[in-house]
Design goal:
single chain; 282 residues; alpha+beta; 2,3-Dihydroxybiphenyl 1,2-Dioxygenase, domain 1; 2 domains; eight-stranded mixed beta sheet; 19% helix
Amino acid sequence: MKSLLFSGLAVLLLGCAFAPVALAQLVAASEGPVAMGHYHLNVSDLAAHRRFWGELLGGEPTKFGSTEVYRFYNALVFLKEKAPEAGTIGSSVNHIGFEVPSVVDLVAKLEKAGVPIVTQREVTGGRAKTKVFHSPSQDIDLAFILGPDDVKVELIGNTAATRAIANHHIHFATPDVPGMQQWYAKMFGATPRKRGPFESADLPGVNLTFSPEDAPQPTKGRALDHIGFEVKDLEAFCKKLEAEGVKFDMPYRNLEKMGLAIAFFTDPWGVYVELTEGLDKL
């Protein structure tokens, strides 16, 4: 087997035998040009993460080469067996969010399974008196849970949801909320809006939410190592970003035999980002 030359998905592609699998869960990718793609986790215990993402949250397990992947509506979760430096709290991506029909029912299931429910700690100002909090500003139920390796996940309720679970949002921590919101609007074409009390911006398949934090740490090496976006005409998009001053950790690469193109960069707030083209078709 070749030595592992690159981090993230590049490792999976260049360091593992490739076996085609049906990963076509990225439904919103057709709405591009930039849409939600994947989350890439460093995990210390594969069995624990299999249970959390598959058995408990309902992700569909599959393989990408020899790497384990869990499919959710509009997001793929990749698991790389590598001890993370820390969890998500304290990093530039504080947590990720999923939408479910009933937060109350899922929290009851997760609590019975021993998953830490941390809503009372995480809701701003300690307003949560129970493990499920009803947000008046959004008129929704929500809860916070901690997955293995301290991956923080928010559950958002939607009684009209037709799927058991779907990707919902990425919650960034940043010392410059307006700047980060404007950056993703300019670079990715995200549509700025308010989500409840938060400044945010929408892309197909995901809401980007921004909260103030004095000095969040970079994501690379942590439990949530990087986030991924699926892009139409990735080569041209990378040229556009370079013209805007973005420095790539890994420049555009077209992996023709795999029908996939990739690139990596770190945003100005320390979020490690992968861009892909073709992941929605694999």
